[in-house]
C-alpha cells in the first residue's frame, strides 16, 4: 500500500491489508444528507490535498432543483475547497473493487468553513460547548424499514418478503423471530459495519412491518453523525443485495409507526470528565434541568430541522410511538423528552422528536443547540409529566409551513447554528415545500373531485 495509507484508521488498514486500493470516494453531506463528491483513482487521491465542488450542492433540494436567491450577490456558484478528514476514511465493502470513502470538510477560497455545510454546522455547535468547558456526548438510535422494491411512485410502499415467504409482520416489537426473517440482510449489515470499523450496540425489531432499529455506542457528536451518514448508505446497499429497499422516510407506510432518530445526550465537564447532569451525591443538577428547559423552549423552532419534509409530520400521531408534545418524564416513552433509567454517571436526556429522515449532522446539531441555549439562558423545564402524554395537548407544529415560520423567527437558534446556515436552510426547505404544494394527491382526487 502507498505510504499515505499509514495514517488510515485501523479498520481501513485491515480492510486493505494485502490488497491494492483502487479508488477513493471523496464525499461531503449536502442538506438532505446525500453523499456528494467525486470518485478518484487512488493514485490521484495520493497526490491531491483538496478538490473543488460548487457551493450550489448545498442549495440543492431533495428533488434535484435549487433554492433561489443563493446570496446577496446572486446565484454564482462559487467553488469550495474540500479537504479530507482522514480520520473518517473507511471501506466501501459493497463495491466491486477495493474502495475507500473519505468525508471532506468544506471551506471557501479564504480558508473559512462554509457555514451551511452540515458537518461544519455541527462543528460550530460543538465548539460552543467546548468554549464553556463542556464535552457533549450523544448516542443516536436509527429506525428504518426494509420494504419491497417500489419502482412506481404511484404504488403504495409494502413490507418486504421475509425468509418465510410471507410479508414482514407488524406489531412484533422485539421479536427475535421477526429479526430472523431479515437474517440475510442483517448479516450483510453486520459484515459491512465490521469492515468499516463501526460498533453496533444492538439490532431490534420495532413495531412496524419490516421496521428495525440499530443503536450505536455513545460518543463524540461529530464521529457519531459521520457514522449515521455512513450507515444510511451501508444499510441501503445491504438491502439491495437481497432484492429489497431500506428506507429512512419518517412515515413510509400508512397506519404503521414512523421511523425516528432518537438522540441521547449527556454533557461532561471537560476538565474532570464527570457528567454535569449529576451532582456529587448523584442528584440531578441545575444543568440537567436547564438542558431539558432548553429543549422545551427551543425545539418548536428546531422541528423544521428535525422533521425536514412534509412526510415527516405524518409521524407525529398519537399512540404510534412518536411524541405529540414536549412533555418530559423519566422512563416514559409517551413524552417527547425522556430521561432513561440509569445511574448518576450515565444520566442522560433523550430527544424523541427527530425523524430518521433528518440529516444526522443537522439533527444532532439542532438538538444540542436547544440544550445549549437552555443551559446558557438557565431555562427551567415544566414539572415532570405524570401519566400518558398522548392524553395531553399537542404543542409541536403539524405541518412544514408552520415549522419553517417558527424556525425563521428564532434568532436564538440562528445565533447558535449560524445565520448563513439558517438563511440557506430556509431557502431550500421552502422551495421543497412550494414544490410539494403543486402536487395534487390521490386523496384530493378521490374525495374532492365530485363532492365539493
UniProtKB/TrEMBL annotation:
Residue ranges of every copy of the GS catalytic domain listed in the record: 118-452
Cofactor field: Mg(2+)
Keyword Transferase found: no
Keyword Ribonucleoprotein (UniProt): no
Keyword tags: Ligase
Gene3D superfamilies: Glutamine synthetase, N-terminal domain, Glutamine synthetase/guanido kinase, catalytic domain
Family: Belongs to the glutamine synthetase family.
Name of the protein in question: Glutamine synthetase
Organism of origin: Parasedimentitalea maritima
Amino acid at each position: 500500500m502507498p505510504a499515505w495509507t499509514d495514517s488510515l484508521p485501523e479498520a481501513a488498514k485491515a480492510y486493505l491489508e494485502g490488497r491494492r486500493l483502487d479508488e477513493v470516494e471523496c464525499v461531503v453531506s449536502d442538506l438532505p444528507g446525500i453523499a456528494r463528491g467525486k470518485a478518484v483513482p487512488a493514485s490521484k487521491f495520493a497526490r491531491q490535498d483538496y478538490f473543488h465542488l460548487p457551493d450550489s450542492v448545498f442549495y440543492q433540494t431533495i428533488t434535484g432543483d435549487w433554492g433561489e436567491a443563493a446570496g446577496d450577490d446572486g446565484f454564482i456558484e462559487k467553488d469550495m475547497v474540500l479537504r479530507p478528514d482522514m480520520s473518517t476514511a473507511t471501506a466501501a465493502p459493497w463495491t466491486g473493487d477495493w474502495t475507500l470513502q473519505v468525508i471532506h470538510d468544506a471551506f471557501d477560497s479564504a480558508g473559512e468553513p462554509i457555514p451551511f455545510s452540515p458537518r461544519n454546522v455541527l462543528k460550530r455547535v460543538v465548539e460552543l460547548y467546548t468554549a464553556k468547558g463542556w464535552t457533549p456526548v450523544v448516542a443516536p438510535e436509527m429506525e428504518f424499514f426494509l420494504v419491497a422494491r417500489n419502482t412506481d411512485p404511484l404504488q403504495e410502499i409494502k413490507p418486504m418478503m421475509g425468509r418465510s415467504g410471507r410479508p414482514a409482520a407488524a406489531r412484533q416489537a422485539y421479536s427475535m423471530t421477526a429479526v430472523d426473517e431479515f437474517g440475510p440482510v442483517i448479516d450483510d449489515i453486520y459484515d459491512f459495519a465490521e469492515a468499516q470499523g463501526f460498533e453496533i450496540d444492538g439490532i431490534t425489531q420495532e413495531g412496524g412491518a419490516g421496521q428495525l432499529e440499530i443503536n450505536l455506542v455513545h460518543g463524540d457528536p461529530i464521529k457519531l453523525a459521520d457514522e449515521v451518514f455512513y450507515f444510511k448508505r451501508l444499510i441501503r446497499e445491504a438491502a439491495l443485495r437481497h432484492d429489497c429497499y431500506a428506507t429512512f422516510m419518517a412515515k413510509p407506510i400508512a397506519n404503521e409507526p414512523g421511523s425516528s432518530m432518537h438522540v441521547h445526550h449527556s454533557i461532561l465537564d471537560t476538565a474532570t470528565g464527570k457528567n454535569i447532569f449529576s451532582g456529587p451525591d448523584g442528584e440531578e443538577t441545575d444543568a440537567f434541568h436547564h438542558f431539558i428547559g432548553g429543549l422545551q423552549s427551543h425545539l418548536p423552532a428546531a422541528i423544521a430541522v428535525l422533521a425536514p419534509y412534509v412526510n415527516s409530520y405524518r409521524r407525529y400521531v398519537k399512540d404510534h410511538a412518536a411524541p405529540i408534545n414536549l412533555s418530559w418524564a423519566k422512563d416514559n416513552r409517551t413524552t417527547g423528552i425522556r430521561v432513561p433509567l440509569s445511574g448518576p454517571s450515565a444520566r442522560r436526556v433523550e430527544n424523541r422528536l427527530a425523524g430518521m429522515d433528518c440529516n444526522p449532522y443537522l439533527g444532532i446539531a439542532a438538538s444540542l443547540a436547544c440544550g445549549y441555549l437552555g443551559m446558557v439562558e438557565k431555562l427551567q423545564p415544566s414539572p415532570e409529566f405524570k401519566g400518558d402524554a398522548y392524553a395531553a395537548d399537542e404543542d409541536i407544529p403539524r405541518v412544514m409551513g408552520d415549522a419553517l415560520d417558527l424556525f425563521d423567527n428564532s434568532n436564538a437558534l440562528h445565533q447558535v447554528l449560524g445565520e448563513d446556515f439558517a438563511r440557506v436552510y430556509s431557502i431550500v426547505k421552502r422551495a421543497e415545500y412550494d414544490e410539494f404544494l403543486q402536487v395534487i394527491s390521490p386523496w384530493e382526487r378521490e374525495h374532492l373531485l365530485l363532492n365539493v
